Amino acid sequence: MNAPFHPDSTSLDLLAVGTKARVLSIDWASLEKTEASRLRHFGFDEGVIVEPAHLGPFGRDPMAIRVGRMTVAIRRKHAGAIHVQPIR
Amino acid sequence: MNPLPLVAVAGSPNAGKSALFNALTGARQKVGNYPGVTVERHSGRLMLADGRPVELVDLPGAYSLDPASPDEAVTRDVLLGQQKGERQPDALVIVVDASNLDNHLRFALQLIELGHPTIIALNMVDLAKRDGLELDPKALERELGVPVIETVAVRRRGIQDLHAALDDMLSAPFCGVHKAVKSDLIHLQRRAREIATAAVVSETPVRRWTHRLDAVLLHPVVGPIILAAIMFVMFQAVFAWSAAPMDWIGQGVARLSAVVATGLPAGLFRSLIVDGAIAGVGAVITFLPQILILFLFILLLEGTGYMVRAAFLMDRLMHGVGLSGRAFIPLLSSFACAVPGIMATRTIDDPKDRLTTILVAPLMTCSARLPVYTLIIAAFIPNSRVMWGVGLQGLVMFGLYVCGIAGALLAALVLRRGVLKGSGGGFMMELPKYQWPLPKDVAIGLLTRAQIFLKRAGTIILGTTIILWALASIPQAGPGQKQSEVSIAGHIATGIDKVVAPIGFNHDISLALLPAMAAREVAVSAIATVYSIDSPDQQGGATKLQDQLQHRWSLATALAFLAWFIFAPQCISTIAVTRRETNGWKWPLFMVSYLFLLAYIAAGATYWTAVALGL
What we know:
The structure holds two protein chains of two kinds. Chain A is α+β, with helices and mostly antiparallel strands. Chain A has two helices and six strands; from the N terminus they run ββαβββαβ. Chain B starts with 5 loop residues before the first strand and ends with a helix. Chain B is α/β, with parallel strands linked by helices.
């Protein structure tokens, strides 16, 4: 885990709307196989820039995330598996 | 005979693949099913310059050859020549979204590696320009090593060029070898990013339209309000716009049966044609306008990209009972009719999510229940006012809808804890760019739905109505006997009596339940028929029927009958479409059993509560 080397690193589900961040690591093991493939298909990868764009109206779930040129919807639970470093 | 050369159109979801396929083939399309799976096979024909026909097949959208859904598995299997019922494609047209190259090129690279003759359609170049993106197709061609054609499928631009390129490719002898090299996904993704960067000539940052619209449509407060408004308009339209055409179809069917009735000699054969075939199929075809209007809205919502946003807004609520946001539209559609609703579950990736949605869809109060509800409410519920502006009859009707929704949510919850246990596929969807769908593409989609519906009406429904007719007509009643008692159906009703007597149902209801298996609203006409036979001097009009009911049924029985119809799966079309969509009899039988069980319990509970209260 890279976390100790990045003091202000967090997980994607805790990132505020409009905050850009770089993906540090993804906890692939915590995801089901198809979920992991889907995240890869969307372009989630270490080093990629992501940004929460919208939150669902109920329980702020799911989250709409900008990744590359796409906006994708994922549940908060899955966003929790993605560790990010906010870009200031 | 040599089969036609097969060209597969492949690409990632939201690349505009189907629009391109429509542009190449026009309305001459065939929709079938791949054997063993519920994935539609869309194919069409294209003429080459020398007059040779080519078959085009529109493969389901996929992000890679590493499938995460049944659709993607079919795409992979066809491309690798492993799909049952499909030959290996001779050439590929790969559709990529010009403004999303870094993602779409990954799949394109994977497909180019397969070694088929390949053309890239660089689609939606107009939207890329709108987003401030200038691309160099020649650079892309150099990097990828295959021809790249710029297209705007929804405006039919670049189609000629694509056609010409296909012509060249299929005319040249191909002696390549199909390779099975498989680079890993991460490597392909990074290569795709490099190529995409190399192909970009210039990029001016602009505030994209899609982002501006999403700021409103996905707003936590405004978004759900707009969604509710759209749904309201949709329902108004489904009921209001369909009234006139439904009348015309009803009149047309009546005229047809009158003509046929005068043309044929009286007897069993005339009865089969008029009372069996025409009446049965006619009753179902009446719903065609509602189904088409509903699908018009669904196609528009899908085509513009709003559908995914609706799923996004509703996902959390649906997730609470173990469904995904994608189930929202199919379930909503089921308020008009469960058949298109169940057909619309194809957009749900996860098999368990999809199955749960199919199994609870019949609990949504469909329009076929309305004739039954209206009749019983008018006959038994006093037209009194509960409070200002709220009538008791309306309140009961509303209660019946609420019971249906509550039943569906509860059933979903129980199913996900029991037979369909599992984490579910979660909710991972791309939010595509907003765009106006081309009217022609919408028209093709509607035509396809209408064909599927009519084909079913012509086969399964026709068959079942004939069987039901036979049960009700054979053997023929002698003088002084009642047809409804003598027939096989009459004997079955006597059997049903024993089962339904404990829940307060009388013999009239038993007689109506069997023909109502064809469709719920048939219960009304069946009861009317029974009474007109019993008292031939009276005309069985709607008002008369109400009076008759008031004399013959207790209030407790009437309420139990209403409760029964909230749950009972009395619709042969729903059962048939469930069989088709789940590929077997296991799930339709399960659905029928659990719904009948619920209906029995609900009717029984209602009856005994009412009796205990002295109603």
